[in-house]
Amino acid sequence: MDSTSWGAKVVARSRVFKPVGLGPFPVALILHGCGGKTPFLETYAEVAVKAGYAAVVLDSFKPRGMSTLDGKLFVCTLMTLHGAKRAADIFGTLAWLKTQDWARADQVFLAGWSHGAWTIMDAYALGTSAPSATGLPDADAVALRQQVKGALLVYPYAAYPSMTSRRGWGPGAPPVWSVLGQKDGVVGWRFPKKALDRLTADGVRVDLKLYADATHAFDDDKANDPRAIYRPDLFQEVQDYFGAALRAVASKPGMFA
To answer: What keywords were assigned to this record (predicted)?
Structure first.
């Protein structure tokens, strides 16, 4: 299957939000964690719409015939669908956006939470190995760099087999906004910080919010992991952070190149 066809299949099982009007709009792609697409991500989609973006909350499980339970049993335990493989959803959706009149396919912002952030990171770290890793023969690392203008990484998984700390992202990577919690008992904060430090050392512009008392999934009011403590105050802060990043990229798309 080529990238555009896979992107169409993924978006058909996902949810698209659009501002009022015909567009074309810049687009925020929102990638869920290993537990599947959860309602709190739609709040972030609404933030994107208020910033003038269309938003696509991607569902990476339904197009693969997977359930939320499958995600918790097999994806969260690293048995299947690693970030590099799931990066097919990014390459596919970017290709599909080029076929949509309402979308500014050259003005895309990627936002991922946990496993979704790992997916974004691996998409860049793959480089020319993207076709073999994703299973999409036309997965285009160059297009990824041309179309995407910024990325938000919220408590990303960055330990092995995540590749960013080892490979970096190579040239042409977009600016990164990131959120880590020092009480994160799921992915920790040291491995993500190491990956972000690698990006900084490679010349990528990285902004970091490091919350001393935040757990994993602190912004998900329906998280069922006992290690997650919901923090509505920080949830609002990250919404504001996301909105500011989106507006910064949209107002000055070449500023962070």
So the answer is: Hydrolase
List, in order, residues 6 or more apart from 222 with CB less than 8 Å away: 38, 39, 40
Distance between CA atoms of residues 82 and 96, nearest Å: 22
Question: Which pLDDT tens digit goes with each residue over 15-34?
Answer: 999 999 988 999 999 999 99
The three-class DSSP label of residue 44 is helix
Give residues with Cβ within 8 angstroms of 253, minimum separation 6. Answer: 107, 149
40-50 pLDDT per residue, tens: 999 999 999 99
Tokens linked to 200: 């900084």
The DSSP result for 120-174, as a single string, is HHHHHHHGGGHHHHHS-TT--HHHHHHHEEEEEEES---STT--HHHH---TTPP
pLDDT in tens, 187-224: 999 999 999 999 999 999 999 999 999 999 999 999 98
Q: In the chain, at which residue ranges do the beta strands (DSSP E only) sit?
A: 15-17, 25-31, 54-58, 103-113, 148-154, 176-181, 206-211
Rg (C-alpha) for the chain, rounded Å, is: 16
The Cα angle at residue 187 between residues 140 and 62, in degrees rounded to 5: 50
Distance CA 135, CA 120 (A): 16
